[in-house]
Structure formats: C-alpha cells, structure tokens
Write a structure and sequence with these properties.
Blueprint (H helix, E strand, L loop, with lengths): L10 H22 L6 E12 L3 E11 L6 E12 L2 E8 L3 E3 L4 E11 L4 H10 L1 E13 L4 E16 L3
Parallel strand pairs: 1-8
Antiparallel strand pairs: 1-2, 2-6, 3-4, 3-5, 3-7, 7-8
C-alpha cells in the first residue's frame, strides 16, 4: 500500500498573497500615520494694554493641521521681531487640540517696552500693518509620540484694534 503524499505547494501562492496583503496594509497604515508639520500664521495683533513703560499685545495665531489625525499641543515658544527689530518672546504652556485636517486659533500674550516699539509704531501709523518674523518651536503630540516642530514664519499683519 502506498502512502499518499501531502501536497503543500498549492498553499504557497495563498501564503504569498496573504503576506503581500499584510505588507501593503502595513504600508498604508504607516502612511496614514506619517507626520506632516502643522503650519502657523500670525492672523492678528491686538493691543491689550498700554503703560508708561510699554504695553501688552495678544498675538492671534492660526494653526493648521494637515494630518488625518488630531494633534495635541502643549507648549509654544517663539521670538518675535517687528519691522526687522527684535521685539520680544512669547510662550504658552496650556493644552490645546488641533483637529484632524483642521484649523485652530491660538492666542499668546506678549509684553513690550517702548524702547522696542519705534519701527513697529511707524509702520502701524504709515500702513496700518506691521511686518513680523516669528521663530521658535511648538511641542505637539501625535497618536504615536510627542515632538518639537520648528517654527519660522514671516509676513505682514494688520493691527485690528488699538485697545481692547
């Protein structure tokens, strides 16, 4: 009597197809969770107070998250230059959420002295707007980790209100 031989070879293509499907699914999952840095734009400057020595401003930042998942923000720190002159530093340590593929408005406060405002004041009087440069970093949390995102932004922004 002859013992029948098991034929495993027909299972090999099925195993290769299953393995290939698994690899493609893993690549698609990794691509879904690939990280694209959020963008930050200075949307507005609001003067919130004036004193003999200087004053305070609210900087309204528009933050855009291009990722297909929400990001958690926790810390923001940046140096601010107005009209190419150093103006001050801002920081914020409070939690916020950036919705998936959405925008969030973030307000940070900046105190200034009158010695730092000369060129910016001239620009506001002449144009009603001021050129800015914002350089710093933002700590964001992804579904996988937390990371610092470098921030370099410049442009021109209107001064919407003189006093709040």
């Amino acid at each position: 009597m002859r013992t029948p031989k098991l034929r495993i070879q027909p299972l090999r293509p099925l195993l290769l197809i299953a393995l290939g499907t698994g690899v493609l699914s893993a690549c698609a999952l990794l691509q879904r969770f690939s990280f694209v840095e959020p963008t930050v734009d200075l949307a507005a400057v609001h003067v919130t107070g004036l004193t003999r020595s200087g004053g305070s401003l609210d900087l309204v930042l528009d933050v855009h998250n291009p990722n297909p998942y929400a990001l958690r923000g926790g810390r923001f720190e940046a140096d601010v230059a107005l009209e190419d002159s150093p103006f001050g530093a801002v920081s914020r340590e409070a939690p916020w959420t950036l919705p998936a593929q959405g925008d969030t408005s973030l307000t940070v406060q900046l105190a200034f002295s009158w010695t730092a405002i000369g060129a910016a004041a001239r620009a506001v009087l002449d144009r009603g707007s001021v050129r800015y440069r914002l350089g710093g970093r933002v700590l964001v949390g992804t579904p996988v980790d937390e990371r610092w995102v470098q921030l370099e932004q410049q442009g021109e922004v209107p001064v919407e209100r003189l006093l709040r």
